[in-house]
Amino acid sequence: MGHRTSDIGTVTLAISAQSKLVVALDFPSELPALAFVERLEGTCTWLKVGMELYYSAGNQFIQTLRKMGFEVFLDLKLHDIPNTVAGAVRSVASTGASLLTVHAAGGTAMLSAAAEAALAPGAPKLLAVTVLTSMDADELLGVGVSDSPEAQVLRLARLAKQCGINGMVCSPQEVAMLRTDLGSEALLVTPGIRGAGDLVGDQKRVATAAEAISRGSSMIVVGRPITRAQNPAEAASAILAEIAQAG
Ligand code: C5P
Asked: From CA 55, how far away is CA 28, in angstroms rounded?
């Protein structure tokens, strides 16, 4: 049975939208995470494992997700002395995760050590977290940064790039600026995605999926708007449709 041309177009659009949506598996352990993955009904291909789930389920769970056919974004937000961060990158290198986060605020030596460790065969590609999407100007001031979130994001993204890391995590509010500054090669990943009717929760610098994609996001990360939806597969499909339209 062959596809008609228009069907192939639709399938291609669906695949390319899927490659831009990462669902944040923010669950306390393997069982509820796997139960939720089933409720996605095959709508998504990218899953993000953050520290909540990783600290309880570990490297083995990443391998389980890989065997199920998912691409894994390991969001450990590493931030320690260079030797320790490089060791942590090596410790997760064999899991099959495709992406791994480090905090850009760790500085030049730490970022360079992480970048070097990530050159190992099979190691994940690194993303530097600039300013958390839960922080606004007041929060930054509280940790001694008097620059705006935009200025701080730009400073940290340029620093990461100089250290050999060409993937960044920022909010959808800075992504257009980074796309202009860093060019088309940079992998720009944006959490802080909320629809018009969604609860914002602890996030501060938010935008819709369509806004994030049209401003230049390579991938968006969505957690609670999908994980807490009554029908996660429907919520994910609606976001995929939004991505396909915007991209
Ligand atoms: O539930 P929500 O959509 O807010 O989840 C966003 C996800 O993205 C969380 O897993 C959070 O850890 C992650 N994240 C973030 N801001 C960053 C980096 C990662 O919200 N700067």
From this structure: 9
